Amino acid sequence: MDMKNASAPSGQLFGRHRRKIAPYEIPEHPGVNANPQELEEWARAKASNLNQHVIGYGALAESEWLAAQIPEPDLGTMRRYRLDRIREQLRARDLAGIYLYDPLNVRYATDASNMQLWTLHNPVRACFVATDGPVILYDFHNCEHLSDHSEVVDEVHPGIAWFYFEAGNRIEEQAANWAKQTADLVHQYGGGNKRLAFDQIDPHGIPHLNREGIEVIYGEDAMEEARKIKLPDEILCMRRAITACEAAMHQMETALRPGMSENDLWSILHAENIRRGGEWIETRLLSSGPRTNPWFQESSSRIIEDGDLVAFDTDLIGPYGFCCDISRTWLAGDGTPSNEQRTLYQMALEQIDHNREMLAPGVSFRELSLKAKSLPDEYLANRYSVLFHGVGLCDEYPAVRYPSDWDAVGYEGQLEPGMVVCVESYVGRHGGHEGVKLEDQILITETGYEQLSTYPLDNRLMGKS
Prior knowledge:
Helices cover 37% and strands 16% of the residues. It is an alpha+beta fold. The protein starts with 35 loop residues before the first helix and ends in a 14-residue tail after the last strand.
């Protein structure tokens, strides 16, 4: 049922009306004699009002944000800003619009979420953003209510699934139906422009689009460029997500005891993230003792021993869908670290400290790479994949490599105010016993930087009492 929405772009009236019922309230049931249309409207209003994005994040998270003095973000302003950012990129590339399948891009464009990990590998959910026209969300069956809170979504419809699990041997038929539907949008809203960008697209759909006269354009670059600069309200969301993440990290550190398994410890981060309204964790990077070298061991049933280093990378999607990418290394037990453990930790800390001080608007990615503090040869083979990377709804553009990797995979660009980057260090001797992982999340400001992650370092590993 398509209805009017006064917040439509460019003064046009796209979209659907939303019933004005206070959050949490269940509307009055229309009665036993209600017709199917009345029942549908009641169920939609009830489900919309009880959406997780409407209910909020709960007393625990809110109390921690209040204690940290982080104001509530203006989500309406954030949503409109994001849509403006996307359209700015579309106009710069002379595109009729963009069709989004990546759940993170759909979240960025709509601030509506639905089975984020499942839809990552089952493309049943998509969003069409017209450069001059509506935002149309194609959601999973009977999920129209999940975007009612988002005033930037103008229409919502069931999607056409044209992947094998859903379509079986009717793939080509369903792909043709989808292509026809998509082409109709471009013809209606493109003003004669047939260039449509896609962030992701299964290749068997492209010939069907071409037959409909649509030129398929690579679109991931447009979305990464749109997402790289964060509005102040987005930074407030990120601050809140980091506060929740660091509270979860504190619960982990408090619980850390020799004799527990890595999975025991790792599960605490998951549980505490969910308690605060967080969403998921992208990796399983927690290891202890000999499993910390080389890096990239996934959390296991290994029992943590007294005197082990325990290293982890949160890679956590927290409240508001924002990523918290923070790494710490702790010493298990109540003992004193070895000289080797202190050496590894100090080396990682010196690398982080030096490289953080390079961050400022206008600094090029090449300069960051070539002037960053690197590692001695006996540690370089075990280096982390990047020195710096962007972060927002997940790890994002850019990725700045070590100098030794620049010629092969480095690329040009520069830091800008409003970007958020992570500074990375992994230090482990090639063929060594243990390693140390540290990482912090940092906002690029007009004059330099502000460190957003504040979780304390391990005093014993720094040589402090």
